[in-house]
Amino acid sequence: MQVYAASFFAIPLFRWFLVRKTNGEIEKRNKAREQWARVLEMPDPPLRQKLASARDMARRTVIGRDRIVYSTEKDFSDQDYEARDWDRRFRELETYDQ
Question: What is the pTM of this model?
């Protein structure tokens, strides 16, 4: 009976400390995210340039069917790729990206 009475108070107390610790970690992460969001809202000139460059690159980079080397639409064994053809296409892409 004494064990039951002790656990009646100990278990919720333990859970309260655990939840408090977890909520503190979540709050810390949320504050860090808010700070980074503020930085992105008002970027300094170097960050603004990087963001603009990334935006431009995203607009220019379009991967068409001709640049796809491997697809997960079909099982690999069903795709019937020959090693030489795969290597050739991969080398073409490497030289295209450089």
Answer: 0.45
- The span from the CA of 58 to the CA of 83, in Å, is 31
Distance CA 9, CA 23 (A): 21
Where is 20: in which H helix or E strand? helix 2-41
| C-alpha count within 13 angstroms, C-beta hemisphere, residue 93 | 14
Distance CA 14, CA 23 (A): 14
How many Cα atoms sit within 13 Å of 91 on the Cβ side?
A: 6
Identify the three-state secondary structure at position 53.
helix
The whole-angstrom separation of Cα 13 and Cα 43 is 45
The Cα 97–Cα 88 span in angstroms is 14
pLDDT class of 85 with cuts at 50, 70, 90 = confident
At position 46, the amino acid (one-letter code) is P
Q: State how far the Cα of 14 lies from the Cα of 12, in Å rounded to an integer.
A: 5
